[in-house]
Write a sequence for this structure.
């Protein structure tokens, strides 16, 4: 859906900065909800997920989120861990195929469930919107700058 494919070359400095900010946000956000007894689940949504990495293997947002989830789980001292569900959507079939391969290569993680789709934004949003409305569920929803035109149209 984006006019350019920034995954076919190494990420530029701006993209790397954006991904670092995202990593830091997820790293700070997750522990808050891992330790809340009233939270029944943690859901992470990424509607413009990309293929999993750039040309040189630098991770995209889905792998970054997974890495931060597994780090938070490993260091958590919570007595009970809510299920963590990660929802990734990539519209482009080729990128989605690459994303599928990247996700299959991830190590298994207790408490983590990953779902991914290959839909246009409207269909993916409609599918997952009921999950975003649930009470007692922490939600992180990522709308990447490359998908903003799909949200505002």
């Amino acid at each position: 859906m984006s006019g350019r494919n920034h995954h076919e070359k190494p990420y530029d400095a701006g993209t790397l900065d954006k991904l670092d900010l995202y990593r830091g946000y997820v790293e700070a956000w997750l522990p808050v909800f891992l330790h809340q007894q009233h939270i029944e689940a943690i859901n992470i949504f990424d509607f413009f997920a990309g293929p999993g990495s750039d040309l040189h293997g630098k991770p995209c947002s889905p792998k970054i989120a997974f890495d931060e989830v597994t780090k938070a789980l490993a260091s958590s001292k919570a007595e009970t861990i809510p299920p963590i569900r990660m929802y990734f959507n990539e519209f482009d079939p080729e990128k989605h195929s690459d994303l599928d391969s990247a996700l299959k290569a991830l190590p298994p993680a207790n408490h983590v469930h990953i779902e991914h789709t290959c839909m246009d934004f409207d269909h993916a949003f409609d599918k997952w919107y009921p999950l975003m409305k649930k009470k007692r569920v922490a939600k992180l929803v990522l709308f990447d700058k490359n998908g903003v035109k799909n949200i505002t149209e």
Observations:
- The helical segments are 13-34, 61-75, 93-104, 121-132, 148-152.
- The beta strands are 41-46, 84-89, 112-117, 137-142.
- The radius of gyration is 15 Å.
- DSSP finds five helices and four strands in the chain.
